[in-house]
Amino acid sequence: MKPRALLIAALLLLEAAVVGEGIAVALGRQTYWPSWSSVQTASNGRLHEGAAPRTFAVGEHPALTVDIGYADLTIRAGDSSQIEVSASKSTDFGWFRAKAPLVAREDGDTVSITTESEQRFAMGDDRRVTVVVPADTRVTVERAGDIKAYGLQADTSLNSIGSGTVTVEDFDARSLRIAASDGKISLYRASATHLELRSESDAIEGAALTVRDGSIESGDGRVSLSFTDGTDAFVNASADDGAIHVAGYNATHLDNRTGDDDASSLEVRIGAGSGRLDVHAHSGDIRISRES
Questions:
Q1: What is the reported pLDDT for 117?
Q2: Which of 17, 144, 166, 211 is a good FRET partner for 229, with 20 to 30 A between their CA atoms?
Q3: CA-closest candidate to residue 268, choices 207, 218, 225, 208
Q4: How far apart are CA 132 and CA 84, in angstroms?
Q5: Cα separation, 189 vs 210, whole angstroms
Q6: What is the CA radius of gyration of the chain?
Q7: Across the 292 residues of the chain, what is the mean pLDDT of every consecutive 10-residue run?
């Protein structure tokens, strides 16, 4: 190609890149433009997608931290005293597939999993990171897409971004905190002294819950909760635009001081009522029942 033609082609490519980035930013999505520093450091702890799990030895106080953007995450409690980390291959082979390397590193008893660099020109991330941990591993997820957690028995904090959903089963520890930007939160057989759930714009469902105190809030979706006989709390439920239904418990309706005919609030005593659990739905019904 002649120098003049080469220069024109390079300018056209640069213009396309700038326009593409503007579109991705406007859509609020991750983008990827590889830098030399990310290429240099990608091999340092990089997870090879589709390969055998990487194994980390941990001590008496294992911990896991995760910040993987829109990539999905599954965490399972295992019988081993080690932490195993693996990543699936991307099934998206288009121009805008996520390419930022996934990295797992160890610092003492803590294993951290991250993406190596900021991404440009990548719309979402269909890779899945799977982690097998000792049941007593303290888990902190700063960012992930869909999150699934099974059998955890230590304090856990999960934050899903984008339209990711969060599913937690067989949890038993002092504290459980879950936040979802635009996805559903589902709990089944979860026991936590302190429980915090917040979904910005989808439903929250919890079955076989054992709770003492905390808060549950849905920005735009229904809240459906069933509690075991081990729950010991006053449940203060309120809905800005929805009805509250209670089955299996005696409920006390509270005065409506908002002046809004659609608003409702009531109080449910479960067990001795020594704790306090606030449940609020901005737009949606609330259902509270005894676990059968």
A1: 64
A2: 166
A3: 225
A4: 5
A5: 8
A6: 23
A7: 43 49 43 39 73 94 96 95 93 66 94 78 79 98 97 98 96 98 97 97 97 96 96 95 92 60 81 95 95 88
Hey, what are 181's tokens? Answer: 């930007």
DSSP notation for 6-62: HHHHHHHHHHHHHHHHHHHHHTT--B----HHHHHHTTSSB--TTSPPEEEE--SS-
Burial of 93 from C-beta contacts in 10 A (0-12 / 13-18 / 19+): exposed
Q: From CA 236, how far away is CA 288, in angstroms rounded?
A: 11
- Count CB neighbours of 247 within 10 A: 11
The answer to whether 84 touches 54, Cβ cutoff 8 Å, is yes
Element (H, E) at 151: none
As given in the structure block, the two tokens for residue 241 are 């635009």
119-to-48, 193, 246 alpha-carbon distances in Å:
18, 38, 47
Q: Would you list the DSSP string of 166-201?
A: EEEEEEEEEEEEEEESSS-EEEEEEEEEEEEEEESS
User: What does the pLDDT read at residue 223?
Assistant: 97
Which ranges of 99-244 would DSSP assign to H, the alpha helix?
none
Which single residue is written with the structure tokens 């714009």? Answer: 201
Q: Which residue in 33, 203, 3, 2 sits closest to 118, CA to CA?
A: 33
Q: Which of 108, 116, 174, 178 is nearest to 149 (CA)?
A: 178
Distances (CA, A) of 6 to 3, 10, 12, 269: 5, 6, 10, 75
Among 141, 187, 145, 144, which residue's Cα sits nearest to residue 163?
145
Q: How far apart are CA 245 and CA 281, in angstroms?
A: 13
